[in-house]
Design goal:
Distance between the termini: 75 Å
Number of helices: 7
Order of helices and strands: HHEHHEHEEHH
Helix content: 40-55%
Number of strands: 4
Strand order of the largest sheet: 1-4-2-3
Mean pLDDT: 80
């Protein structure tokens, strides 16, 4: 109890004791250079991503030895448990990250225990053949002349 109180006082006075805490918070308690794959919060909710998760894990495990699947703790329980089950079926380490100050758009991060330095980690960059393209809603702006003259 005494150590816990001392740790809380030290943290309040000195800040966090981990290296680069902002980056670790963004990437669900890991470093950017270790990230293999990023799935955004919104993409985690899609059935297409959940149904392809087995194939994705198989592919990543064939390329990397020691992977961890980190799941954002704010995902709905049924969704996060579905991903946990699939990761456990593939014998991958799984962690649900539930920090109260969490401010990330990522739903799932798959990372290695060492630096891999993958530039394009987004699921749609790495698995174009498995998934359809991300829905983008962009309205084409009409020129002023077209608005006026039809």
């Amino acid at each position: 109890m005494e150590t816990n109180l001392k740790n809380r006082i030290d943290m309040a006075a000195n800040g966090e004791h981990r290296f680069n805490p902002d980056e670790q918070r963004k990437y669900l308690n890991t470093f950017r250079e270790r990230v293999i794959l990023i799935i955004t919060y919104d993409d985690c909710m899609k059935k297409e991503v959940l149904s392809s998760f087995d194939k994705i894990l198989e592919d990543i495990q064939s390329k990397y030895d020691d992977i961890t699947v980190k799941i954002n703790g704010t995902l709905p329980d049924d969704i996060s448990m579905a991903y946990v089950k699939k990761a456990k079926d593939h014998n991958a380490a799984v962690t649900i990250v539930a920090e109260p100050w969490e401010s990330t758009v990522f739903g799932i991060i798959i990372h290695s225990s060492k630096a891999v330095n993958i530039e394009h980690c987004d699921i749609y960059d790495q698995y174009k053949d498995i998934l359809t393209t991300r829905e983008t809603i962009k309205k084409k702006k009409e020129s002023l002349w077209k608005k006026i003259f039809g």
